């Protein structure tokens, strides 16, 4: 019997960018874990953020089934990608297989993630510091991208994470970077959103890292990806000027 032709396409730069955008522009995701009591797959919905290295982050209650599942078995999958009108299977989606890392509450990592998470999910301030709530980093191990009919790809961990020597420096100065950008270009967020063909809104920058920046307006979240990963703080400014929607030099 002849081997069937593979349904997978070769993973290229366009596929990697789409996968990163689907993951980093998601405000929430479906999460699948293994129920420790029954062994059955258990699916739920979680708010989603990202750490400075692009790793997805979730904030969960210790009372939830998926938290107990992650404590028992670190394996989890995330499904991101929003359908629109018509056939929901015609829209791009990404399934990311992850290993969960609990974040210690009194650590620098927790403080960094907490700030980034609140920039996306302001209402989480009501419960983010409750004793039974905690963060997990969900470190990608592999991913399956369905970019639409006939566009299936397999991705590896390095395709979804930000590997830059500038990560720590950018994390330390993220708020300053945003303030300086807005001081020089008050219309930056609106211009970037228009370049991504987003509707009118009160757009603002809610996160920056070495691979791009995030825009938010109400419940809408956009991801602006750089063409190449910045190597440090100074690179952020030149990368923004070089983006495809042609923001003039800052």
TrEMBL record:
List the top taxonomic levels of the source. Answer: Bacteria, Pseudomonadati, Pseudomonadota, Alphaproteobacteria, Hyphomicrobiales
Name by which UniProt lists this protein: Pyridoxamine 5'-phosphate oxidase
**Source organism superkingdom:** Bacteria
| Domain called CREG-like beta-barrel: residue spans | 14-157
Q: Note one Pfam family from the annotation.
A: CREG_beta-barrel
GO CC annotations, alphabetized: cytoplasm
Q: Which residues cross the membrane?
A: none
């Amino acid at each position: 019997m002849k081997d069937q032709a593979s349904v997978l396409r070769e993973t290229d730069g366009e596929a990697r960018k789409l996968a990163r955008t689907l993951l980093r522009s998601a405000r929430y995701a479906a999460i699948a874990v293994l129920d420790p009591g029954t062994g059955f797959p258990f699916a739920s919905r979680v708010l989603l953020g990202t750490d400075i290295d692009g790793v997805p982050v979730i904030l969960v209650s210790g009372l939830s089934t998926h938290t107990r599942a992650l404590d028992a078995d670190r394996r989890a999958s995330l499904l991101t990608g929003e359908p629109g009108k018509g056939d929901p299977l015609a829209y791009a989606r990404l399934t990311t297989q992850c290993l969960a890392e609990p974040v210690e509450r009194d650590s620098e990592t927790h403080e960094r993630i907490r700030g980034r998470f609140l920039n996306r999910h302001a209402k989480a301030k009501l419960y983010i510091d409750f004793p039974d709530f905690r963060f997990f980093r969900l470190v990608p191990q592999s991913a399956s991208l369905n970019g639409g009919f006939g566009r299936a790809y397999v991705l590896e961990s390095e395709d979804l994470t930000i590997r830059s020597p500038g990560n720590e420096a950018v994390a330390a100065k993220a708020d300053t970077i945003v303030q300086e950008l807005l001081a020089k270009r008050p219309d930056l967020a609106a211009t970037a959103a228009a370049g991504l063909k987003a509707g009118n809104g009160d757009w603002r920058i809610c996160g920056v890292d070495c691979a791009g920046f995030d825009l938010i307006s109400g419940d809408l979240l956009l991801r602006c990806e750089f063409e190449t990963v910045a190597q440090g703080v100074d690179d952020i400014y030149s990368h923004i000027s070089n983006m495809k929607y042609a923001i003039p030099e800052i």
